Amino acid sequence: MSVLSEFKAFAVKGNVVDMAVGIIIGAAFGKIVSSFVGDLVMPPIGLLIGGVDFSDLAVTLKAAEGDIPAVMLSYGKFIQTVLDFLIVAFAIFMGVKVINKLKREEAAAPTLPPVPTPEEALLMEIRDLLKTRQNQQP
């Protein structure tokens, strides 16, 4: 089997395609969460702690000199990124929790034994007849 055909077999497997879709949706979801945190969550928190905008929180390590920009330690952006992560992680946790609950309910549902097909029923009758004949012979 050539490398190209092996790669083709790997790439078209359901798991790889599902993973790619998940990554794409995850990237889009990340943008939504970043906007949610930056535009809806952080302003009220900043207002509660005295009108501080987290994205502006930074420590100047070296002041700007002429054309050289200042060297800043932007810890406010880090705080915002951590909150983004926590919200995404919580949303994923809740999704997995719902999926696990649905799987448990599905597993707990009683399953009826399958009804044999007419061919299977006929074969079972023949089997039973042969057993009774074998037991009746001396």
Tell me about this structure.
The protein is mostly helical and 138 residues long. It has a single domain, classed as Non-ribosomal Peptide Synthetase Peptidyl Carrier Protein, Chain A, CATH 1.10.1200. The chain contains 4 helices and 2 strands. It has helices spanning 3-11, 14-48, 75-108, 118-136, and strands at 59-62, 71-73. A hairpin with an 8-residue loop joins strand 1 (59-62) and strand 2. Helix 2 crosses helix 3 (75-108). The longest helix is centred in the first third of the chain and has 35 residues, at 14-48. It starts with a helix and ends with a helix. 3% of the residues are buried. The mean pLDDT is 82.
Summarize the structure.
With 138 residues, the chain is mostly helical.
Summarize the SSE layout with pairings.
Elements: H1 3-11, H2 14-48, E1 59-62, E2 71-73, H3 75-108, H4 118-136
Give me some keywords for this one.
elongated, 5% strand, two-stranded antiparallel sheet, Non-ribosomal Peptide Synthetase Peptidyl Carrier Protein, Chain A, 138 residues, single chain, mainly alpha
Structural class based on helices, strands and sheet pairing: mainly alpha
Q: Please provide the count of β strands.
A: 2
CATH domain topology: Non-ribosomal Peptide Synthetase Peptidyl Carrier Protein, Chain A
Number of helices: 4
What's the CATH architecture name?
Answer: Orthogonal Bundle
What is the global morphology? elongated
Q: What's the mean pLDDT score?
A: 82
DSSP strand content: 5-15%
By CATH reckoning, the class would read Mainly Alpha
Strand order of the largest sheet: 1-2
Computed over alpha carbons, the radius of gyration is 32 Å
Helix content: over 70%
Main sheet properties: 2 strands, antiparallel
Task: Point out poorly predicted stretches.
Answer: none
Distance separating the two termini:
61 Å
Order of helices and strands: HHEEHH
Say which CATH homologous superfamily is assigned. Answer: Large-conductance mechanosensitive channel, MscL, domain 1
How many structural domains are formed by the residues?
Answer: 1
Q: Please give the oligomerization state of what you see.
A: single chain
